[in-house]
Amino acid sequence: MEIEPFVDANAASQFLNLRPRRVLELARRGVLPAYPVGDGVRRVWRFRLSELASAIRSRSVNSCDAAVRAGKGLS
Asked: Is the dihedral of CA 35, 36, 38, 39 positive or negative?
């Protein structure tokens, strides 16, 4: 069984066609599935592309972020 690697906000933003800052904002709000690393104020966020794709496909992203689902983002 192969373990899917984590990616950073830059890779996640390219996948979602959003700016990295927007991806981080959505991760902090819990809109996108993400994993914070560290306990400090400035956390590092990591993502799994398969989870991002599933979240978008299943429409589990809040309706207020419909632009993200459409791949247009508010970047």
From this structure: negative
Give the total residue count for the chain: 75
Helix axes 20-28, 9-16, angle to 10 degrees: 100
* pLDDT tens, position by position, 58-74: 865 554 454 444 455 44
Ramachandran quadrant class, 17 (left: phi over 0; alpha: psi -120 to 50; beta: rest): left
Contact 21, 28 (CB under 8 A): no
Residue closest to 16 by CA, chosen among 58, 50, 42, 64? 50
